[in-house]
Amino acid sequence: MISEKMNQLINDQYHREMFSAHQYFAMSSYFLDKDLDGFANFFRVQAEEEIMHGLKQFDYVHEVDGKITSGPLEAPENEFESVLDVFEKALGHERYITQNINAIVKAALEEGDFATHNFFQWFIEEQVEEESLMRSLIAKLKLIDGNTSALYMMNEELMARKAGQEAA
Ligand code: FEO
Question: How far is ligand 1, taken at its centre, from the CA of residue 128, in Å?
């Protein structure tokens, strides 16, 4: 049995994961529009992973006799200044998600909800991987520094990413 407070915290996090998917689909769409299919694929896979994160939380809440109550999602950003700008915003968003996951884990510990504390350890690790992935792609983009052929090579590499796999 989960407390009302923990139920609410996870309910909010479920919405953040679904918003993340919404945002990453918008980024995917931005790249499709620019004929950068590999970058579009990267963010599509990222969006699919966010839905999986949300569903894990959805299932968990119901497993511990709570309930997910669906509410509205805010509108994502659709316009970006550059490829680098998209990745910097994605990293900023992942850092925000990490802070929220940390707050849930802290609250779970404070109220002695060890099941929730344990459940969210997977997300703690996942956030380390996601931030690291975004940082390494930002570093690559900075090295490339607008070189078109290098950008197209990176686009080809990102085309290969499939759900459940880390990118290059
Ligand atoms: Fe579900 Fe990218 O955090």
Answer: 10
Distance CA 23, CA 93 (A): 9
pLDDT tens digits, 150-166: 999 999 999 988 876 65
Domain range 4-159, its CATH number among 3.30.70.100, 3.30.70.20, 1.20.1260.10, 3.30.390.10? 1.20.1260.10
Q: Ligand 1 centroid vs 53 CA: distance in angstroms?
A: 7
- pLDDT confidence of 167, banded at 50, 70, 90? low
Q: What is the pTM of this model?
A: 0.95
* Residue 113 CB–ligand 1 contact under 6 Å: no
Q: Is any atom of ligand 1 closer than 6 Å to the C-beta of 117? A: no
Distance (Å, rounded) from C-alpha 108 to C-alpha 147?
47
Q: What is the pLDDT of residues 109-139, one digit of tens each?
A: 999 999 999 999 999 999 999 999 999 999 9
| b/e map 116-140, b = 16+ CB within 10 Å | bbebbeebeebbeebbebbeebbee
Taking a C-beta distance cutoff of 8 angstroms, is the pair 43, 83 a contact? Answer: no
Residue 142 CA, ligand 1 centroid: distance in Å: 23
- The residue whose two tokens read 């970058």 is 39
